[in-house]
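Notes from the 1:1 (GR / supervisor)

We went over the backlog. Supervisor wanted to see one worked example end to end before approving the batch request, so GR pasted a single chain during the call. The sequence is below; no edits were made to it. Supervisor asked that the structure be written out right there so they could see what the output format looks like.
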Amino acid sequence: MRRNFQRSTFKLQRPTQRRGNAEHRAQVAVVTWATLARQQFPELALLFAIPNGGHRNVIVAKKLKAEGVRAGVPDLMLPVARGGFHGLFIEMKAGKNIASATQVEFMNRLVLERYRVAVCYSSAEAEAVLREYLGMDATPGRQGRE
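Structure output shown during the call:
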């Protein structure tokens, strides 16, 4: 499944403080759910956040850039292979906030490298993506957990 994120479907905009908080709350809810759902899906123990966003002072930003922080990287990563994908990346958004040009470009590159990528606008949507992804068989081309 090669799905590219179309440039024509987004507008560049800076999230407001309220949206940033909504994205934060949704991501916290996903990580909390994943912790509780590990009994059903042990693979969720590998889910982790990629702290690329947020406001930082100039010195910290320069240090992080030197360490390899890259713009456009999605918020969450599950390094578990399923259904021919190497892993799953999730970008959390809230309200009318949409992916930036840098994010779209990075996500398209991930898709080309056989990663599954999802943009989710709620914790429920992200949880559904994780459930569906983990329900895929590890064998490429086959779906469903048996």
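Supervisor's comment: Residues 6-17, 141-146 have pLDDT under 50 and may be disordered.
Batch request approved.
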